[in-house]
Design goal:
Shape: globular
Structural class: alpha/beta
Number of strands: 4
Distance between the termini: 35 Å
Radius of gyration: 18 Å
Number of helices: 6
Oligomer: single chain
Length: 196
């Protein structure tokens, strides 16, 4: 993710649609390793995609959102934006950064009807998580079912993956005109992980 590449994508959106009223920043890659073994290039990749691209895309639309006196930026962070887990230094750093950026954009957009909020899900069964399940099973010499129960969902009180449709429902609410006063907030869908 480069600033130029993101700007090109945003410019294309404007040329096709005329305006961007809602921006959903939803990207993520992961690597799991103790910090002393964490490859620098992996750290840089994770920060670039999971954090820097959120900044680049938000910056690219922000002035026009202010000028049109309407905008909704929805950042998909993670429960790891508010809680840490061992061996995920880059991911946790990036997702915490997304929460901080969300708050800054909420403040800067407040008088222009531009809101910014973050959705913080626990584990959603995506290709990223399915890859983690396989990797954890190999690393811990466990079955994939054991990884789901004893590693993935261990911190959640509700022992099931977060339905992806629920993320969409929250995003639709946050994108609405009547969500004007909802800004700078984090919405957790984490099976009560962060309640502990």
């Amino acid at each position: 993710m480069t600033p130029e590449g993101v700007q090109e994508l945003v410019d294309f959106a404007y040329s096709e649609m005329g305006s961007v009223d809602v921006l959903v920043n939803n990207a993520g890659i992961q690597h799991v390793a103790p910090i002393e073994d964490f490859p620098i290039e992996k750290y840089q990749q994770i920060i670039a995609l999971n954090l820097n691209s959120v900044f680049y895309a938000s910056k690219a639309v922000f002035k026009k959102m202010k000028d049109q006196n309407f905008g909704r930026i929805i950042n998909v962070s993670s429960v790891h934006g508010i809680r840490a887990s061992e061996f995920k230094s880059a991911y946790v750093t990036a997702k915490h950064g997304v929460i901080g950026l969300t708050k800054v954009l909420a403040l800067e957009g407040a008088q222009f009807n531009v809101t910014c909020n973050a959705i913080c899900p626990g584990y959603v069964k995506t290709p990223l998580v399915e890859g983690q399940i396989r990797d954890q099973a190999k690393a811990h010499q466990m079955s994939e079912e054991e990884v789901v129960e004893k590693v993935m969902l261990q911190k959640q009180a509700v022992k099931s993956f977060i339905p992806i449709e629920k993320l969409g429902e929250i995003a639709v609410f946050l994108a609405a005109e009547n969500a004007t006063t909802v800004s700078g907030s984090t919405f957790t869908l984490d099976g009560a992980w962060s309640a502990q």
